[in-house]
Design a protein that fits this description.
The protein is 37% helix and 18% strand. The protein has 219 residues and is of the alpha/beta class. A three-stranded mixed β-sheet has the order 7-8-9. Strands 1-6 form a two-stranded parallel sheet. The two termini are 24 Å apart.
Length: 219
């Protein structure tokens, strides 16, 4: 349930590759994020089995029953205007039968994108016939080649990882997505930005969230 920037990225592209066959990032964001609790950011996490930086994302399982998280979400958002509808979506995600981390995340993306009327095709990187001996930028370029991409868009944090000239030499335009600063009412608290998309949907509902997905700049 990443922050809005990743959902904007998913909407901005025709095909979004879910990077499931790379090493798990310990203390990363795959199984945790921030919501608003009592006016402050509060980090929730999802319990995993065998999580290790020596394993791929698709080699790790979720062992959480989501009971604690659901209680936390109730205390945090039960008075939010779109609590009931958002919890319906989250329950659909929580109850998904496949607890493999990569496939669980893939399904969660699908559920939220479908709700927000985003038609982007989701692709597991493990299903792409690429050269797995490659690393970093070279591997990304190979994936782009296999998928016949003429433009690659990455989150703004990837600016130091990728080189415009090398992408251009491969016939690919490189862009980075920078979310615009947007704010919305979070009860009567001072606005806290960059929380999980859960927070945005709780306070804005479907239509307003759809509009906020367009609030970004490509650089």
């Amino acid at each position: 349930m990443p922050y809005i920037g990743y959902w904007q990225l998913m909407k901005a592209v025709d095909k979004y590759v879910v990077y499931d066959d790379v090493n798990f990032i310990k203390r990363g964001w795959a199984n945790r994020n921030n919501i608003l609790l009592n006016g402050e950011p509060y980090m929730f996490s999802v319990a995993l089995s065998g999580a290790s930086q020596n394993k791929l994302f698709n080699e790790i399982d979720i062992i959480d029953d989501f009971g604690k998280l659901k209680k936390t979400l109730y205390y945090a958002y039960n008075k939010a205007p779109y609590y009931e509808k958002t919890m319906q979506l989250l329950d659909e995600i929580f109850e998904y039968h496949d607890k493999n981390l990569a496939r669980f995340l893939y399904h969660s993306f699908f559920v939220i994108l479908n709700y927000l009327d985003v038609q982007t095709e989701l692709i597991m990187s493990s299903s792409v016939d690429k050269d797995n001996s490659l690393k970093g930028q070279s591997k990304i370029l190979d994936i782009c080649s296999v998928l016949q991409a003429d433009r690659y868009i990455n989150a703004i944090g990837g600016q130091e990882l990728y080189n415009h000239d090398e992408f251009a030499q491969n016939g690919i335009e490189l862009k980075f997505l920078h979310p615009n600063i947007v704010s919305y009412q979070q009860y009567k608290h001072e606005f806290v930005p960059n929380l999980s998309i859960i927070d945005m949907m709780m306070f804005n509902g479907k239509e307003r969230t759809k509009k906020l997905l367009n609030e970004y700049t490509l650089v």
